[in-house]
Amino acid sequence: MSKGRFPCPECRADIPVSAEMLVRQEALNCPACGTSFTLDSSSRTERALDMLAKFRTATQGLGKG
Ligand SMILES: [Zn+2]
Description:
Shape: elongated
Strand content: 15-25%
Mean pLDDT: 78
Largest sheet: 2 strands, antiparallel
Low-confidence stretches: none
Radius of gyration: 12 Å
Number of strands: 4
Bound molecules: zinc ion
Order of helices and strands: EEHEEH
């Protein structure tokens, strides 16, 4: 399972995220400040999209064979 970390938009704390959460665009909850937010294509979080692209590549590789 691919996992990564995403900086909280409020406090910049590292939030652990899984590829599934990004692909399914589930809401993330910051363990530091409690902020809840989602990562989607309309978001200004460009790093999220970059991470999502990498995760998709990884998951596609796992699906083969
Ligand atoms: Zn936070």
